[in-house]
Amino acid sequence: MMNDPKTRLRRTMMFVPGNSPKMINSADIYGADSLMFDVEDAIAVTEKDTARYLVANALKTLKFHSETVVRINHPTQTPFGIDDLKVILPAKPDMIRLPKVEDVSEVELVTGEIERVEKENGWPEGTINIIGAIESVKGLYNVREICRHPRLIAIALGAEDFIANLKTQRTKTGIELYYARSQILMAARDAEIQCMDTVFSDVRDMEGFEREVTNSRDMGFDGKSVIHPKQITEVHRIYTPDDKQLTHALKVLAAFDDSLKNHKGVLAVDGKMIDGPIVVRAQRIVDQAKAAGIDVEKKREEI
Amino acid sequence: MIKVLKKTAQAGFEEKNDLIVEVSPLQAESGIIIELQSPVKNQYGSHIETLIKDTVAAEGFSDVQVNVSDKGAWDYTIKARIIAALERGMA
Amino acid sequence: MKNAVGREIPAHISGISNTRLYEGTSAYTPAHTGAGKKLRAGKPHTDKILKSIDEAIEKTGLKNGQTISFHHHLRNGDYVMKMVMECIAAKGIKDITIASSSLSPCHDFLIDYIRDGTVTALESSGLRGQLGKYLTKNPGALKKPTIIRSHGGRARAIEAGELHIDTAFMAAPTCDRQGNATGRIGKSAFGSMGYAMIDAAYADKVVLITDNLVNDPVYPYSIPQTQVDYIVPVEAIGDPEGIASGAIRITKSPTQLLIAEYAAEVMDETGVLKDGFSMQMGSGGASLAAAKFIREKMEDQNITGSFGIGGITGIFADMLKDGLFKACYDAQTFDTTAVKSLSENPNHIEISASFYANPWNAGPIVNDLDVVILSATEVDLDFNVNVITDSNGICMGASGGHSDTAAGAALTIIVVPLIRGRLPMIRNHVQNVVTPGDDVDVIITERGLAINPKRTDLIEKLKDSKLPIMKIEDLQQLAYAFVGKPEEIKLSDDDRDIVAVVEYRDGSILDVIRKPLV
To answer: Known NCBIfam families for this protein (chain B) (predicted)?
Structure first.
């Protein structure tokens, strides 16, 4: 269940420059839930070809623990995106990140390429999925429709371009992104897909990072894009449920199991009514705890 | 079908774990000629030469000079840089 | 003959009188009496100050075939060895053995004096730079293989009379007119004089070379006037840039930090981190970086340690200052922050190399270590560690206190990258053994940890750990899956191509370094 592409944990998605063998070689050791190999903004236009071959060969050869994602160039706004797909898709990444998505037709275009490669290789449909990144106002206005595309299993905010589009800059409070974050989250929840927050680019400012990650967690984001290994530990810490939350979640799940086995209608934990969404949320907390290395079974016995 | 390289081309960077590959066309029947500089030549020299030869052949070329200046690249990187250099040599 | 780490050692090595093979980490107990000190009668009201190094060489009566010594506290900024060797060569003295506590790249000039026969033998903790390369490729350039000793092993050899020093030329950052010397002050201050103390105590003649001769008595002193025959003032004994770095900082390399974090976690989970514990950290990236995580854990759990040993850096000096440890024992001071700490903090204690690590005294401080974290050039499936030769067999490192602290510490942790560039660092057999696997307990890499199977207690303690613990063979295979299996390099089996003899700290022969055939 934890590796179902629709529901697996994506607390952290780490950017890895797609033309740096040194960084690709060590990308997997820091425990990011997902690795996002970038052949888009991190790569000069004169090196798009070498980067896509490097990433494709890395995916074919190296064994990664983390989920693998490749950020391609935009398939219609640049001359590189389609070639990226031709080289990258046969290397079977778990996901394609579609940057600067503005219209659902772009998702359809990428899906078409994916389906073709899946068929050619005899892979089941859904082997490769898409995460879209909203990076413009136009994209934001279309986010609900984009999120409802069946191949899109997650949506992300890409703040740098979005901020440029807004004609402002990043602030400590994050006021400039408040509307976009909210909108994208609503669209993701409406479409029942995951939602990733944008990067925090000052790697030295760990306090600011903690504040921002805590805020986006509290808003409801499933995870954060990160650009440095030291940000990973911090996000995972913030996304790790505390003891009280975990205890409650385990009680909810135990009560739910009991109700199924013994055909009970109404159930309650600590005097509060339990229904569907609470069970789903409890399961999510338990998954997060497990991923963070907490011995959940031991905890379950203790209760 | 045998491909014939059109021109000399390069790929890769002089960085740790990377390499610079330069491919040049050779006359027919010359074969694949390799010049390898590598800090791990004692440990992986013959392995890397076989990898280069196999990669060039698999891409459909038979007469190519391949000069490699390696900085400790892993196999996938060597392969990726050769493929990219050959493609650039056909443009 | 194979010794106890499975190394083939010739029964007789030309120029080396020692034939005792390594039999185990504590196989040998000495029953004899050590070296005595040459007696000399200092005259009242004589001046020890000489005009030049040349005059000092005259006065000491240095002759062909003798042994002179230096310490390496000036590290890569040392001017003294060069000044002394220039005078010796100019006087036409030949066949000199240099017994330096270690050698740095600034000593590459020795190649010229080896070529012209001024220097014919070396005894050192290590060989590096161009000199290391030159001697590896030209073992015949010296009349016998270089003897490599650990810091404790060198102190032992001197005290046991195996290494006899005719004249010690000791750089002194500050000394008075009687020869009381300290490394704490002066423009070339380098801190502890731990290695120099042994040479000064046992050499037949002792010459101090200083760039800060003072009239007032120097106190506290590291070398007492009772051991000093002559003093030569010079313009500068070293280049401050090369002597002590400014404050050594913790690495920013995420891989090294990850390894360091694992090391601290192992200490925590095996119960080492508790009130009153003692530790040493190597000065390398990941071992030093462990301090950051150890500090966090000590502060979180409210733990106060007993003492640290070093190789002291400012990072440890700060832990001492902040009350995380009660004391630190310092045989070698690495950076300016630590030099300052030695001068100012009464709990920062200067010790000699013998106090530090000599296995043949009643108790070197390494024997009381709970844990040491050390780096490695490479390790092998038997947990042996190499820090002296690179993967191509070239001498590029030093034995240092590696085997001394590994032998003394209750828990020895080795931190090493699983793959450097393309080379896997877990070999079937290390190129050369400096620290035997029997003294190594845990090997930590960025992709996993291996526990010495002999340490069943540690395996038990860590059995429920979330750390990526695996068998060392599996860890090696993991590296091979990424980079393939390397071919072994070929070595000359001609006994005339023995570059160096690696002594274990007890003086037995642990390994020989052979010339690579490439």
So the answer is: citD, PRK13253.1
